[in-house]
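== Sequence entry ==
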Amino acid sequence: MTDSTPMTIGELATRTGVAVRTIRFYCDEGLLEVRRTAAGHRVFDRAAVDRLRLLRRLRAFGIGLTAIADVLSGTRSIAEVIATERAAVDAEFAALSHRRALLAAVEHAAPAALDLLAAVADPSTARATLGTFWRRQLAPLPRPLIEDFLDMNVPEPTLDAPPEHLLAYAELVALVANPALSMAMSDTIRHRGTPGVRDERRLLLDVADACLTAAPAVAAGRAPAPGAELDHYVDIHAGARGLADTPAFRRRLLADTADTADVRRYWQLTAALAGDTVTSGAAHLWLFDALTVAVA
């Protein structure tokens, strides 16, 4: 047989090891170029061998016929198709890993936690719920700063998250659904009970700076106590109101702020998810407790 001699479908099957029935299917799908003899028999040129072998190799990797058709037509490269397929497999793996972790969490916590964990069955929705809560809390700040805050203070469980982490994350989502937490969190951050704030945006930026200043003390495990960190924090709140840092101001700042159990619980759960990272909430609670000690 010369290079120009057409092959029958049987000869193509012999050369490639692909069943005749499969070759017919690929022809019907438009993946193989075929001609018909006067008698109506399918015949192929030599290029059909390489084309069919490439097709079969791509199928072995689970590539779909539509993507293979793009490769064979030159619309997309093999590298592009493989990269797309790998990304799809990664997404499937992530979904399966998350599902497995959720099932393990239900087993760990008993069916009573079913409703709680259902809130994090869709990770993107759960994350969006927490994001919406904080965007409302920090609304005066520029969006990039809020997104930085979310990256640091709204950690997501890993794909192989232990049950206790998923339970903590689910409880966070449940907590932000309670309007009382929104009010309490805002009061704790801003000390709304002490009126007279002239520039709320500036206050939020300065409180964030105070939390960064206190973070090393939290990381070192220092007990909340008066010191430079607290002085900086109180000075921020006094200056925001055009007042001086006095013992009377400190007493008022503490007395007029609602320190609710839900706020503490929220930040305790977040700290459990963040691991060694000191969250803004952990630093803020440290400052709040240092103020309590100073006033006492």
